[in-house]
Amino acid sequence: MTRFRQTLTGAAVATALLASLSMPSFAQTAATPADKAVATQAAADHHKHQRGDKRGDRMEHMKQRMEKLKADLKLTPAQEGAWTSYTDAMKPGERPAPGDREAFSKLTTPQRIDKMRELRAKRSAEMDRRGEATKAFYAQLNADQQKTFDSATMRMHKGHGKHHGAHPGQERPAAAPAAQ
Q1: Contact 126/93 with Cβ under 8 angstroms?
Q2: If you ran DSSP here, which 8-state letter would residue 138 be given?
Q3: Is the pTM of this model over 0.85?
Q4: Cα distance between residue 23 and residue 106, in whole Å
Q5: Angle, nearest 10°, between helix axes 143-156 and 54-73?
Q6: Which among 155, 137, 24, 160 has a CA at the least distance from the CA of 85?
Q7: Pick from 110, 125, 153, 177: most CB atoms within 10 A?
């Protein structure tokens, strides 16, 4: 039994030694305040690029689409008030601040589920509000304007499925056959 322990101990020591030799070691230098400032600015620029610039671009793109839609509809002076109400309702509301991940991680699973349901209900209410505003505006249009509105809004939504899968009524690409 003693010989078995010696062999086992020797094998464990040899394994630990080989493992420690195979791991690369890197010397770390202390970061200077200038290095930290550069890293902080780079992170801020990255987030600005990902959030701020895209939002501004989307808002400008939406404004251009709405101007084109208005021109295509050839609204009468009597319809201008309905148009203003519609465009005001379509403007994005105030976006909620990004969630505090640390606070979210401290919640229990049932609390996180409730929080996600609350956020989903807010998004759903916003979509319902916009939907009702669209229906109210649509009711003010004549038959030709309704056709124009239908085709224009269909074009606006055409590219939305390319990143998240097909929408109802669209075919999904066939799955590739499994390799055997």
Answers
A1: yes
A2: H
A3: no
A4: 35
A5: 160
A6: 137
A7: 153
